[in-house]
From TrEMBL:
This is Glutathione S-transferase domain protein. InterPro entries: DUF952 (IPR009297). PANTHER family: BLR1139 PROTEIN, DUF952 DOMAIN-CONTAINING PROTEIN. It comes from hydrothermal vent metagenome. It holds the Pfam family DUF952.
Length: 113
């Protein structure tokens, strides 16, 4: 997917979003005031750093063209990778695919694309 950002979340966090028509984000997203996304090259790093040992995850592929460009910002420290942040709730209609993320026997995340 060309213009795609990714959201890693628990299956439980995402469960009600499609029917509700909105995803407000995780507890961390709500605390920070935006929904944390990743680029494709950031996914493995984010999984290892923030979701270590955690199973029952989903990787949501989100079409950037379906997001409000004024609410999607790429931010980070000077010289560091810029991470995409969405400063509004996510519409489930922007989610183009969902991929289960599971743990291997060695506790590494495996994404079932």
């Amino acid at each position: 997917m060309r213009d795609t950002v990714y959201k890693i979340c628990t299956k439980k966090e995402w469960a009600d979003a499609p029917e509700a028509g909105v995803y407000e984000g995780s507890v961390d997203d709500k605390r920070d005031g935006f929904i944390h996304f990743s680029t494709q090259k950031q996914i493995k790093r984010v999984l290892a750093k923030y979701f270590s040992g955690q199973a029952d995850l989903l990787l949501l592929a989100i079409d950037v063209s379906l997001l409000n460009p004024l609410k999607l910002k790429y931010e980070g420290k000077m010289g560091a990778d810029k991470y995409p942040h969405l400063y509004e709730a996510l519409s489930p209609s922007a989610v183009q695919a969902q991929y289960p993320v599971r743990l291997s026997d060695t506790n590494e995340h495996i994404i079932d694309y």
